[in-house]
């Protein structure tokens, strides 16, 4: 087990993560693009969400990713998606990327 931990993550995986991080960084929007973002009361904002990715304790491969969406401003539950995956972190997030593309407003 200690041997596995010392080798994780492999250099190839680190390189993949760095490339993906650079791609995501290039897509960051650092300005307000929606009218509700400029309104102190957030008028027009209808939903908020949160994402978490956690690894199983003592296991650097098995992960659980969760997405929760709430209505705004009521903060009532709208949607929860959870996915367990036996993969490295960037791949564990893939289901949410697909879900976002399929369910974009």
UniProtKB/TrEMBL annotation:
The keyword Iron-sulfur does not apply. GO terms for cellular component: cytoplasm; nucleolus. It is found in: Cytoplasm. It comes from the Eukaryota. One of its GO terms (molecular function) is single-stranded RNA binding. Keywords: Cytoplasm, Endonuclease, Hydrolase, Nuclease. GO terms for biological process: DNA repair. The keyword Hydrolase applies. This is Endonuclease V.
């Amino acid at each position: 087990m200690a041997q596995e931990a010392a080798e994780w993550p492999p250099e190839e995986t680190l390189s993949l993560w760095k490339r993906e991080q650079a791609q995501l960084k290039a897509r960051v929007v650092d300005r307000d693009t929606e009218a509700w973002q400029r309104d102190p009361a957030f008028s027009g904002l209808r939903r908020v969400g949160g994402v978490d990715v956690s690894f199983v304790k003592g296991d650097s491969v098995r992960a659980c990713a969760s997405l929760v969406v709430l209505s705004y401003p009521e903060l009532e539950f709208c949607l929860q998606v959870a996915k367990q995956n036996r993969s490295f972190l960037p791949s564990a997030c893939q289901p949410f990327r697909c879900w976002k593309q399929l369910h974009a407003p």
